[in-house]
Specification:
Length: 148
Protein backbone atom coordinates (compact mmCIF):
# COMPACT_ATOMS: atom_id res chain seq x y z
CA UNK A 1 0.00 0.00 0.00
CA UNK A 2 1.44 3.19 -1.10
CA UNK A 3 0.92 6.10 1.22
CA UNK A 4 -2.32 5.58 3.05
CA UNK A 5 -4.31 8.74 3.29
CA UNK A 6 -2.59 10.25 0.30
CA UNK A 7 -4.36 11.17 -2.90
CA UNK A 8 -4.52 8.59 -5.64
CA UNK A 9 -2.05 9.16 -8.42
CA UNK A 10 -4.55 8.84 -11.27
CA UNK A 11 -6.51 11.97 -10.25
CA UNK A 12 -7.83 14.06 -13.17
CA UNK A 13 -6.66 17.61 -13.66
CA UNK A 14 -9.37 20.32 -13.43
CA UNK A 15 -10.82 21.34 -16.79
CA UNK A 16 -9.68 24.84 -17.71
CA UNK A 17 -11.69 25.31 -20.93
CA UNK A 18 -14.84 27.44 -21.22
CA UNK A 19 -17.75 26.08 -23.18
CA UNK A 20 -18.87 28.97 -25.44
CA UNK A 21 -21.75 27.20 -27.22
CA UNK A 22 -24.43 28.42 -24.75
CA UNK A 23 -23.14 31.99 -25.08
CA UNK A 24 -23.40 31.83 -28.87
CA UNK A 25 -27.00 30.59 -28.56
CA UNK A 26 -27.90 33.46 -26.27
CA UNK A 27 -26.24 35.96 -28.60
CA UNK A 28 -28.18 34.66 -31.62
CA UNK A 29 -31.49 34.84 -29.73
CA UNK A 30 -30.75 38.45 -28.71
CA UNK A 31 -29.79 39.31 -32.28
CA UNK A 32 -33.11 37.98 -33.57
CA UNK A 33 -35.03 39.88 -30.89
CA UNK A 34 -33.30 43.16 -31.78
CA UNK A 35 -33.85 42.60 -35.51
CA UNK A 36 -37.58 42.11 -34.93
CA UNK A 37 -38.04 45.04 -32.54
CA UNK A 38 -35.87 47.63 -34.36
CA UNK A 39 -38.45 48.48 -37.06
CA UNK A 40 -41.07 49.03 -34.34
CA UNK A 41 -38.94 51.69 -32.64
CA UNK A 42 -39.14 54.20 -35.50
CA UNK A 43 -41.35 57.15 -34.73
CA UNK A 44 -43.24 59.26 -37.14
CA UNK A 45 -46.60 60.50 -38.28
CA UNK A 46 -48.47 58.56 -40.94
CA UNK A 47 -48.83 60.99 -43.82
CA UNK A 48 -49.84 60.26 -47.43
CA UNK A 49 -47.45 62.50 -49.32
CA UNK A 50 -48.37 63.88 -52.73
CA UNK A 51 -46.38 62.47 -55.63
CA UNK A 52 -44.29 64.64 -57.93
CA UNK A 53 -41.67 64.08 -60.59
CA UNK A 54 -39.34 66.87 -59.41
CA UNK A 55 -35.66 66.25 -58.73
CA UNK A 56 -34.65 65.81 -55.08
CA UNK A 57 -32.87 68.66 -53.33
CA UNK A 58 -29.52 68.09 -51.68
CA UNK A 59 -29.37 68.63 -47.94
CA UNK A 60 -26.34 69.68 -45.93
CA UNK A 61 -25.21 66.71 -43.83
CA UNK A 62 -24.07 68.91 -40.93
CA UNK A 63 -27.42 70.65 -40.48
CA UNK A 64 -30.14 68.73 -38.68
CA UNK A 65 -33.48 69.50 -40.31
CA UNK A 66 -36.68 70.33 -38.52
CA UNK A 67 -39.64 68.46 -40.00
CA UNK A 68 -43.13 69.81 -39.39
CA UNK A 69 -45.88 67.37 -40.37
CA UNK A 70 -49.56 67.96 -41.00
CA UNK A 71 -51.74 64.84 -40.99
CA UNK A 72 -55.05 64.39 -42.80
CA UNK A 73 -56.97 65.75 -39.77
CA UNK A 74 -54.97 68.99 -39.78
CA UNK A 75 -52.94 68.19 -36.64
CA UNK A 76 -49.37 69.55 -36.49
CA UNK A 77 -46.29 67.61 -35.35
CA UNK A 78 -42.69 68.83 -34.94
CA UNK A 79 -39.84 66.35 -35.44
CA UNK A 80 -36.22 67.27 -34.72
CA UNK A 81 -33.83 64.46 -35.59
CA UNK A 82 -35.38 61.27 -34.23
CA UNK A 83 -37.52 63.00 -31.63
CA UNK A 84 -41.19 63.34 -32.53
CA UNK A 85 -43.94 65.21 -30.74
CA UNK A 86 -47.57 64.93 -29.83
CA UNK A 87 -50.18 66.81 -31.90
CA UNK A 88 -50.04 70.52 -31.11
CA UNK A 89 -51.81 73.71 -32.18
CA UNK A 90 -50.24 76.07 -34.71
CA UNK A 91 -49.23 78.63 -32.04
CA UNK A 92 -47.23 75.96 -30.18
CA UNK A 93 -45.53 74.89 -33.44
CA UNK A 94 -44.51 78.48 -34.09
CA UNK A 95 -43.18 78.92 -30.54
CA UNK A 96 -41.22 75.65 -30.62
CA UNK A 97 -39.69 76.35 -34.04
CA UNK A 98 -38.76 79.91 -32.98
CA UNK A 99 -37.08 78.49 -29.86
CA UNK A 100 -35.12 75.93 -31.93
CA UNK A 101 -34.08 78.52 -34.52
CA UNK A 102 -32.86 80.91 -31.81
CA UNK A 103 -30.39 78.24 -30.63
CA UNK A 104 -28.99 77.43 -34.10
CA UNK A 105 -27.16 79.44 -36.70
CA UNK A 106 -28.64 77.60 -39.67
CA UNK A 107 -31.42 75.09 -39.89
CA UNK A 108 -33.55 73.73 -42.67
CA UNK A 109 -37.28 73.36 -42.13
CA UNK A 110 -39.18 70.75 -44.13
CA UNK A 111 -42.97 70.48 -44.30
CA UNK A 112 -44.65 67.09 -44.73
CA UNK A 113 -48.28 67.72 -45.62
CA UNK A 114 -50.78 64.94 -46.19
CA UNK A 115 -52.19 65.17 -49.71
CA UNK A 116 -55.74 65.06 -48.30
CA UNK A 117 -55.24 68.04 -45.99
CA UNK A 118 -56.72 71.42 -46.92
CA UNK A 119 -54.38 73.69 -48.89
CA UNK A 120 -55.04 76.56 -46.49
CA UNK A 121 -53.77 74.50 -43.55
CA UNK A 122 -50.35 74.06 -45.18
CA UNK A 123 -50.22 77.74 -46.20
CA UNK A 124 -51.04 78.85 -42.64
CA UNK A 125 -48.29 76.55 -41.36
CA UNK A 126 -45.73 77.98 -43.78
CA UNK A 127 -46.72 81.53 -42.83
CA UNK A 128 -46.34 80.66 -39.13
CA UNK A 129 -42.90 79.14 -39.82
CA UNK A 130 -41.81 82.31 -41.63
CA UNK A 131 -43.10 84.33 -38.68
CA UNK A 132 -40.95 82.15 -36.39
CA UNK A 133 -37.85 83.20 -38.34
CA UNK A 134 -37.52 80.39 -40.89
CA UNK A 135 -35.77 81.49 -44.06
CA UNK A 136 -35.58 78.14 -45.85
CA UNK A 137 -38.74 76.04 -46.00
CA UNK A 138 -38.96 72.94 -48.19
CA UNK A 139 -41.83 70.60 -49.01
CA UNK A 140 -41.43 66.83 -48.75
CA UNK A 141 -43.12 64.73 -51.44
CA UNK A 142 -42.99 61.15 -52.69
CA UNK A 143 -41.47 60.48 -56.08
CA UNK A 144 -44.08 59.70 -58.70
CA UNK A 145 -43.81 56.37 -60.52
CA UNK A 146 -42.43 56.69 -64.05
CA UNK A 147 -45.25 56.88 -66.56
CA UNK A 148 -43.76 55.25 -69.62
Amino acid sequence: MKGMGMMPENRKKPMSEINVVPYIDVMLVLLIIFMVTAPMLTQGVKVDLPETSSAPITADKNVESIIVSVDSNGAYYVEVGDEGSDPMPLADVRAQVAKILSQRTSSEILVRGDENVDYGTVVRLMAALQGAGATSIGLITDSAPDET
